[in-house]
Each structure stands twice: as C-alpha cells, then as structure tokens.
Amino acid sequence: MNKEDKKALVLDIDGTLTTSSKEITEVTKAAIREMLDRGHAVVLASGRPTPGTKRYVQELELDKRGGYLLSYNGAHVEDLRTGEALVDRFLPAEIPAEIYRYAKQRECGLISYEGAEVISAFAPDEYILLEARINYLPVRQVENFDTYVNFPVNKCLLTAPDEKAYAMEQELVSIYGDALSIYRSEPFFLEVMPRNISKGETILSVLDRMGVTRENLICCGDGYNDLTMIEVAGLGVAMGNAQEKLREVADYVAPTNDEDGVADVIRKFIL
Q1: What domains lie within the chain, and their CATH numbers?
Q2: Residues whose CB is less than 8 angstroms from the CB of residue 173 and which lie 6 or more positions away in sequence, other chains included
Q3: Sign of torsion, CA 81 85 87 93?
Q4: pLDDT level of residue 182 (50, 70, 90 thresholds)
Q5: Which residues contact 48 (CB under 8 A, 6 or more apart)?
Q6: pTM
Q7: Could you give the CA distance from residue 139 to residue 161 in angstroms, rounded to a whole number?
Q8: 117-120 and 180-186: which strand pairing?
Q9: Cα separation of 74 and 58, whole Å?
Q10: Model confidence over 76-115: pLDDT tens digits?
C-alpha cells in the first residue's frame, strides 16, 4: 500500500478501545483485523506503562500482525513486530526526588514503575490500587522513594481527588513551566512527563517511520491526555463518553466505548 492510501488508526485504550469493563468486543476486534489485513496501521496510545498494555497487544495480535505501541503518554514508542524502540524518553534524574517532596507536602499519592511493578511512595490510595488493577501489575510500597528511584523512569504519577488534582496541576505547571510536561489523564491522575512529551507530539514524530501522512492520521480518545493527538490528527475523534473538552474540538464524535465506537470509526473512515 502506498503512503497516500495508508491510514493509521491511533487508539487510546481505557474508555476508547475497551468497554467500561476493560474488554475489547468481538465487533471491534473484527474491524481492527480487517483494517490490518488491508495494510493500514494500528497504534495503541496509552498513559499506561508498557507492561500494562500487554494483554491488549496480544488480544489484537499486534506483535504478530504488525502494529505500534505508544505508552507512558508518548515517552516510549515501540514497533511491536520488531520490538524496536522508536522513542524512549526519561524524566531528568533529579525530578522523582523533587516530586516526592512535593507529594509528601501535599499528602497525595505518588507512583512510578520498575519493570512490571507499580512502585508507590506511600501507602497506596484508591487511585493507585485502581492503576495497579487495570494494568494487571502488583503494587509495592518502597521506603525512601526519593533515594530508591535512582534509575531512569519514563514518568511519575500523582493521585488525588478531582479538585485537589486540578489545583496540583496548576501549581506544578507554574513551578516547572516548560521544563516538564504536566497534565491530567483522568480527573484523579496527574502525569509528570519529560519535556515536550504528549501523545500528539510523539505520534507526529514517528509518522514517517510508519509510512503515513498526517492527513491519513486518525486519532481516537476520551481523556484529557488524548487532547493533543485529537488536535494534531487529520481526523480527530472523540468517543461519545469523552470529556466535554475533547468533544468540543473533535472533527467527529463516535458512539461510546460501550457501543463499539471504534468499529464505527473504522467502518466510516477506513474500510
């Protein structure tokens, strides 16, 4: 398939590809298989850590059929057929300790990742337990998070109730300015990322490697961290269950994640 005809479908996982029960329906699987058979590209784009996406990569056979994985909100991108890392960005070495001190002062949750584990700075709150559960990863509290994390990490994640997380987002953006990328992926998840890392910026950086033009880039999402990729796409799609801000800027609003919205997009714009 030539570059002018090949399309790339970029799919957020939670609330987009999967239903409310974190499953991919057979209808959606069949539509994805058909577009792959026709030579188009599929990219899973998630804030999840790489190990937390494994189940869905295997279900869709993207490691065998060909596909790409964008994890940690774009700090890591992998060609799933070859295992090659196309992007791998880490936080500056001093940042986990600084964020730990901030989290301790604000009495909120803080995690990062080590291998296939969620590592928590404090006793895990309900949001951290949710993060561990949806990723099928164990959570482990570590002593002295500030000195324990002496290895490269793609991101840190702060957790707090909606209004508190919003206030923390404003504070950290004012502190770090352009030195880091800081935004919420869910009302209670505050992502601390390397500078200039977002789903949108990262997906644009690998389009040539995928052999796809920006005009043929279709991005589907529902959460705050999907906004950048919806804005840069040739066709930006908000799910029917998406945050209102996404629905306002999207080119198309699909049915919800519980109504096979992804399959609707594939039928309408790809097949």
Answers
A1: 8-89+197-269 (3.40.50.1000), 95-194 (3.30.1240.10)
A2: 182
A3: positive
A4: very high
A5: 13, 14, 71, 72, 134, 135
A6: 0.92
A7: 20
A8: unpaired
A9: 20
A10: 999 999 999 999 999 999 999 999 999 999 999 999 999 9
pLDDT band at 23 (very low <50, low <70, confident <90, very high): very high
- Quickly tell me which residue has 């730990």 as its tokens: 100
**Residues counted in the chain:** 271
